[in-house]
Every structure is written in structure tokens, then in C-alpha cells.
């Protein structure tokens, strides 16, 4: 075997004879096989190249003694190629010969001649031995057919010596049996010395180990010029596994397949196993199936995971860690914000700087991933949640949003200036959209003001500092109307120290209620209210704690009985004394009434009554038309109650209220004529019913008032403005 170093090509002529054995002749063919290694800029070449070969009779200049053989599209793999050359008879005559080689990339613009030419000795001259009568067949040589002098060795062989090659010529040497003699025995070695005896190479060519003819391990020389140190590459597993040219310190521990090789493209990067993995970043690590560690110091472990960011980590299934220092696990998750983290779950995204999505995003039926896009934002779990505000926190739940990010400043307790910090703890469809806003849970709540709070169901704290709590008694939103409000919607009531509450109201079990500041923006300067238990009744005191004196009381009681000057009120407002007022607005009734006793007992409301001539001071039901004794209409029909009721207790009290003026409903009979608004009404022959005045002469002194609604036919009720005349 003759091995020579070229500028761009290292050629190794393998002992190949293309001998064509014949049973009765020593003739043979002229073809032989040539194997070489092609380097491109110092690295093993890969691809398809066109090669030319010609034989000369001198190392330089000289005469070409053969035709030019061209091998097109020669495959070069990891620097190695093999071609069959046939220059025909008469070329190798026993005189020295040199091989000139030209190379061009497949489809290139021209061949480059490599220098120097390659000497051809002695293997091709096995062809020349065809002229010798002493050669038998290539598969065997007749004992004694070749003598020692014919081998051109230095001297005769000694006892036990074998034929070898020292790189220049054939020599006789002792057989290699391992150990200190420099060989390596297949059955074990003795007498080895660490650092002196080794299995390997003395040049920078790769060393390969094969199993069943296929490469299982490849050792490549590598050098890190930055630290001036050797850094070999170790490539285990499939022969298709590859370390890119110029890479050093790389490791492919194993795995890979012909069509799914593992690849390393970064210095000191590693693929620990699996198939179709790529570690292309500096000191990157990949393992699993189709994992890609592209960022420097990145790690990708799992199926189809990508770690593109600097020092990023991607694990699990189809995850992407593209942010620097980002980490992702679970499935179909993305951590593309620098220093972001997705711990697990599926279809989640952490895109904000230092943002976190702990998990969630998939409920085994639908993919509704969570998103943390705000600076240092956090989503704990749940489905479809979004934390887009700076330092926003979203604990979980479904379709919640924490997005507050407006800048807020102040001086309590120290000067502060910050934004974000919105919080939604959980629930469904909740939103915290202002700085410091909070929603503890519930559903459809909105904290839209800075430092606002909304909880329950449908609460909307839309103003700064507002606190709104709403129960589920209504499908309407319960919203703040101004800043710094504290609002509660509780249909069952609010209790302090008690669970027995008035519906929709407030009950304090003990201690009373003291308000020392302004109780309402509508009453500036109010000193407060204090409520306590006194003498078995509820008592209210208005007291100025600054001036230490009583205050006038503003009272609005929507229910119960209020006594003024009495401890036993009988009515909603019962005053024992004289009342002075600038004006009176009555909202509970529409007529002026006075109670009268009825001879026949209770009379139906809306009935027309007349003076009972047999019982002074009493009234009775009307029974005839145009009755001048008409006194009024029994008040209260159709829910129209008296606005003012006149009586004197103990003297003229008791009986039924009779409307003397104002608007009331009256029973009417249109059988005496259809009634239209504006018609005068009087008594009729139908007991207790009014009718339209048709005889104005008879109606004098018998008129009830004017109709304000119509009655076309039959009996019914008509709204009437009572004006007796």
C-alpha cells in the first residue's frame, strides 16, 4: 500500500488486483482500484466531484504515457472516494510511473490539477507480473514460486520473521504479538504502559469502529484554538450521524438512523441519544426525537422541542423555548420571552420578560391556552386566561384577564411610582384592568379603577379606589358611580356580627355604628351617625364629636315606624307635637279624604256615597240619579290611596276614607250614556255607581266631578277629578 500526501488530496492505493484468473494461462486484466481521501480547506470533503487521472513517466514535466481517464460525479463521503482505473496494456512496463489527478466540483467550470503527482509502486505492477511465468492465481501462490530475492527486500529473512512494509519498501520483521512489541492482540494484551501503548492514530485522520461492517463509533480530531487545546469529537450510533466541519469537542452518544441522523453543529455541543436530534449551539445539549438545541448553552429534550434562546431549556412535546434563559415543559407550549417559564400544561405562551405560566390550557376537550405577556406576569393554571399587565397575577379559572398597566404615583406612606400589579385570583370571565386592581374570583366582575376591588357576580368597580361586591340575585351589573365608593349588593342583607339580616339591609349585632367622618358626598361637613340600643327601642343620635354637642338629625326611613316625641309610634312617622314645613310633597296618595262611618258597614272602594239623613254624620250607598245628598267616593279603588287623611282622634275617627277632593277611581254605569273625559258625573239609579250628566238642570248640587277617563258601555271604573258642586 502506497500512501502519499498531496496539497488537496491524500490518495491511498489499495491492493486490488483486478486479476482475471484463467485455468490454463497467466493473462490478466489491466484495471485496478484506486482509493483516496479528498480534503476541502483542511476538512474532509463531502459531495459529488468530477475526477481525471493520467499516468506520467516522471514526477514533474515528463511524458504522459497513458490516456486520460475521467470519472464523473464521483461520490465523496467524509473525504473518502473509491474509483476503478483502466489505462489499458503497455502502460505499466516495469519503469517508474506517476499518477496525475485533476478535480472539479460536479458541474463546475474546470479541473484543477493537484500537485505533486502520485508515484505508483509497487502494487499496479502486479499487472506487470502477467509477463512472468512464475505467477499462479490471485487466490493462491504455489509454494516456492516466488523467491526472497525477487521481493527486493533488504537481506534474507530470519527464523520466524514475516514480510512487512515500513512505508518505503518491503522488509522482513518479527511478527506482532501485542504488548511492548507495538501490536494489539485480539485476545488481550500484557505489559502495556499507560501513555505509551494505545489504540488509535498518530495523525489527525478520523478513527472508526465498526460492527457487522457498519460504523458504530467515529473519533475525530478537533482543536480549540481559543484555548489552544485538543478537543476531539466523539460520534457514536448510526453511521449517518454527523458533526459539522470545523466543530470541536462535540459528542453524539448514540442513536440516530440512516434517514433520521443526529447532528451536532456547535462546539462542545452534545446529542445524548434518540433520533433526528440537532445540537447546533455552543455547549448545547439535545436528546429524544427531533429535538433542536440551537441557542448557546441551550437544552432540548423530548419530542419536537426547540430551544433557540441563549441558555434556554425545552422539554416535553412540541415546545419552543426561544427566549434567552427561558424554560418550557408540557406540550405545544411557547416560552419566547427572555427569562420566561412555562412549567407544563398545553398551548400556553409566556411572552413577557420574566413571565410565568405554571400550567393549564387544555381540559381534554378543547385547547384554550393561557398567556402571560406582561413584564413579570404570572398565570397559575386554568383555561384561556391572559396576564398582559406588568407584574399581573392570574391564579387560574377560565377566560380571566389581568391587564392593568397605567402609571400611578403618590406619597403614602412614602413616595411611590409604579404600574401594573393587577390581580385576578380565579373564577370566570373576570377582568382586572387597572394598576393595583383586584378580583378575588366569582364571575363577570371588573376592577377597572386603580386600586379597585370587585367580587361576587357582575360587580363593576370602575373608579379609582372603589370596592364593589355583588351577589347573584340579579343578572344586571352592579357598578360604582364615583371614586372611593364601598358598595354592596346583598339581597339577603348585610350582617356585622350576626347572620340574621334584614333583606337588602344592614344589621349590626352589637356595639353600634359610629361614623366620625363625612358620611356622604351629598352632605359635606356631616359629623357622622351613632346608633345604639336604648330603653328597648332603636335610638338614633346625631352628635358632633369635635364640638361635643348634639346635631340636628336628617332622617330617611324606608320602612318601619318612626316616632318623634313618642316611644310608641303607630304610623310610619308618628309625631307627638306640632309640625312646621315649608312645603309638602305627597308621593303615597292622590286625594284628600276624611273617614266616615257607613250605615251598612264596609262599602266597596270606588262606590258613590250620600249623606245618611237618618244618622247624622254618617254616609250610605247612593241609590238614585241626580241625588243632591251626594258626599263623595269611597277612596282606595284600583290602588289609588288617600294622600291626606283628615281626622281627630277620639272625636271624629273610625269608618272609611271618603275622597272629598283630588283624583280617585269611581264605579260608573255607561248604560245611561257613554262617558268621555271631561264629562260631568253624578249619581245614578245603579247603587253606588256614577253616570254621565245628561240633564244639567237636575244635576245642580248633585255633581261628583269630571271624568278623566272613558267608559264606552256597561259598568266599570272611571278616573274622576272630585269637585263636589
Which value, in Å, is the CA radius of gyration?
A: 56 Å
Tell me the major beta sheet. Answer: 15 strands, mixed
Q: Based on DSSP secondary structure assignment, what is the total number of beta strands?
A: 68
Strand-residue fraction?
A: 35-45%
Class inferred from helices and paired strands: mainly beta
Query: How many helical elements?
Result: 1
CATH superfamily of the domain at 591-723: Head decoration protein D
Q: Mean pLDDT, as a whole number?
A: 81
How does the overall form come out from the CA principal axes? rod-shaped
Structure, described:
It is a single chain. The chain has 725 residues and is an all-beta fold. Among the domains are: 2-131, Immunoglobulin-like (Sandwich), CATH 2.60.40; 385-510; 511-577, no CATH class; 591-723, Head decoration protein D (Virus Head Decoration Protein, Chain: A, Beta Barrel). It has one helix and 68 strands. The strands form 13 sheets. The protein has a 15-stranded mixed sheet with strand order 13-14-17-19-21-23-25-27-29-31-33-35-37-41-43, with no helix packed on it. It has a 15-stranded parallel sheet with strand order 18-20-22-24-26-28-30-32-34-36-38-42-44-46-48, with no helix packed on it. Strands 59, 60, 61, 62, 63, 64, 65, 66, 67 and 68 form a ten-stranded mixed sheet that branches. Strand 1 and strand 2 form a beta hairpin. The longest helix has 4 residues, at 696-699. The chain is rod-shaped and about 175 Å long. The termini are far apart. Mean pLDDT is 81; it is low at 1-27, 127-139 and 526-534.
Amino acid at each position: 500500500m502506497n500512501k502519499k500526501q498531496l496539497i488537496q488530496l491524500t490518495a491511498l492505493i489499495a491492493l486490488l488486483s483486478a486479476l482475471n484468473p484463467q485455468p490454463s494461462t497467466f493473462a490478466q486484466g489491466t484495471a485496478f482500484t484506486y482509493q483516496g481521501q479528498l480534503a476541502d480547506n483542511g476538512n474532509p470533503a463531502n459531495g459529488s466531484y468530477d475526477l481525471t487521472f493520467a499516468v506520467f513517466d516522471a514526477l514533474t514535466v515528463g511524458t504522459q504515457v497513458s490516456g486520460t481517464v475521467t470519472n464523473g460525479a464521483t461520490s465523496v463521503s467524509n473525504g473518502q472516494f473509491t474509483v476503478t482505473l483502466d489505462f489499458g496494456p503497455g502502460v505499466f512496463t516495469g519503469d517508474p510511473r506517476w499518477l496525475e489527478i485533476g478535480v472539479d466540483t460536479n458541474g463546475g467550470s474546470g479541473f484543477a490539477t493537484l500537485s505533486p503527482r502520485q508515484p505508483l509502486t509497487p502494487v499496479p505492477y502486479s499487472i506487470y507480473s502477467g509477463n512472468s511465468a512464475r505467477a499462479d492465481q490471485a487466490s493462491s501462490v504455489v509454494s516456492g514460486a516466488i523467491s526472497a530475492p525477487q521481493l527486493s527486500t533488504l537481506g534474507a529473512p530470519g527464523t520466524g520473521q514475516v514480510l512487512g512494509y515500513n512505508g518505503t519498501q518491503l522488509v522482513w520483521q518479527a511478527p506482532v504479538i501485542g504488548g511492548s512489541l507495538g501490536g494489539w492482540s485480539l485476545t488481550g494484551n500484557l505489559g502495556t504502559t499507560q501513555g505509551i501503548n494505545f489504540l488509535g492514530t498518530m495523525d489527525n485522520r478520523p478513527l472508526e469502529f465498526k460492527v457487522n461492517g457498519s460504523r458504530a463509533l467515529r473519533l475525530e480530531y478537533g482543536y480549540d484554538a481559543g484555548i489552544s487545546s485538543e478537543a476531539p469529537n466523539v460520534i457514536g450510533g448510526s453511521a449517518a450521524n454527523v458533526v459539522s466541519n470545523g466543530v470541536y469537542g462535540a459528542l453524539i452518544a448514540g442513536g440516530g438512523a440512516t434517514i433520521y441522523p443526529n447532528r451536532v453543529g456547535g462546539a462542545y455541543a452534545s446529542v445524548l441519544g434518540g433520533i433526528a436530534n440537532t445540537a447546533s449551539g455552543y455547549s448545547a445539549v439535545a436528546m429524544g426525537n427531533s429535538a433542536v438545541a440551537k441557542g448557546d448553552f441551550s437544552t432540548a429534550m423530548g419530542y419536537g422541542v426547540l430551544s433557540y434562546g441563549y441558555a434556554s431549556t425545552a422539554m416535553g412535546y412540541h415546545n419552543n423555548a426561544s427566549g434567552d434563559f427561558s424554560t418550557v415543559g408540557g406540550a405545544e407550549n411557547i416560552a419566547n420571552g427572555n427569562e420566561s417559564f412555562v412549567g407544563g400544561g398545553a398551548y400556553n405562551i409566556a411572552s413577557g420578560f420574566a413571565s410565568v405560566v405554571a400550567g393549564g390550557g387544555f381540559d381534554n376537550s378543547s385547547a384554550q391556552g393561557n398567556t402571560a405577556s406582561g413584564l413579570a406576569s404570572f398565570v397559575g393554571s386554568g383555561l384561556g386566561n391572559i396576564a398582559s399587565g406588568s407584574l399581573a397575577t392570574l391564579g387560574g379559572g377560565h377566560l380571566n384577564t389581568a391587564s392593568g398597566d397605567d402609571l400611578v404615583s403618590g406619597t403614602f406612606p412614602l413616595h411611590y411610582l409604579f404600574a401594573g400589579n393587577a390581580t385576578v385570583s380565579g373564577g370566570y370571565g373576570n377582568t382586572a384592568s387597572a394598576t393595583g386592581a383586584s378580583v378575588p374570583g366569582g364571575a363577570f366582575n371588573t376592577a377597572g379603577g386603580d386600586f379597585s376591588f370587585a367580587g361576587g357576580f357582575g360587580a363593576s368597580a370602575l373608579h379609582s379606589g372603589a370596592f364593589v361586591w355583588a351577589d347573584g340575585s340579579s343578572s344586571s351589573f352592579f357598578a360604582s358611580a364615583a371614586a372611593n365608593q364601598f358598595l354592596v349588593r346583598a339581597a339577603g342583607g348585610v350582617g356585622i356580627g350576626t347572620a340574621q339580616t334584614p333583606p337588602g339591609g344592614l344589621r349590626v349585632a352589637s356595639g353600634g355604628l359610629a361614623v366620625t367622618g363625612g358620611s356622604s358626598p351629598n352632605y359635606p361637613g356631616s359629623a357622622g351617625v351613632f346608633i345604639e340600643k336604648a330603653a328597648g327601642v332603636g335610638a338614633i343620635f346625631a352628635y358632633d364629636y369635635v364640638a361635643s354637642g348634639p346635631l340636628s338629625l336628617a332622617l330617611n326611613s324606608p320602612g318601619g315606624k318612626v316616632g318623634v316625641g313618642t316611644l310608641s309610634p303607630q304610623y310610619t312617622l308618628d309625631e307627638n307635637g306640632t309640625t312646621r314645613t315649608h312645603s309638602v310633597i305627597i308621593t303615597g296618595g292622590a286625594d284628600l279624604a276624611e273617614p266616615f262611618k257607613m250605615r251598612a258597614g264596609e262599602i266597596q272602594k270606588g262606590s258613590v256615597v250620600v249623606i245618611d239623613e237618618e244618622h247624622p254624620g254618617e254616609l250610605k250607598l247612593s241609590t238614585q240619579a241626580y241625588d243632591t245628598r251626594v258626599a263623595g267616593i269611597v277612596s282606595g279603588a284600583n290602588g289609588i290611596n288617600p294622600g291626606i287623611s283628615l281626622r281627630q282622634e277620639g272625636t271624629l275617627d273610625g269608618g272609611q276614607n271618603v275622597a272629598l277632593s283630588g283624583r280617585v277611581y269611581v264605579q260608573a254605569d255607561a248604560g245611561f250614556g257613554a262617558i268621555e273625559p271631561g264629562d260631568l258625573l253624578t249619581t245614578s239609579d245603579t247603587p253606588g255607581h256614577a253616570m254621565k250628566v245628561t240633564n244639567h238642570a237636575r244635576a245642580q248640587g248633585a255633581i261628583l266631578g269630571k271624568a278623566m277617563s272613558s267608559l264606552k258601555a256597561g259598568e266599570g271604573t272611571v278616573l274622576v277629578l272630585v269637585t263636589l258642586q
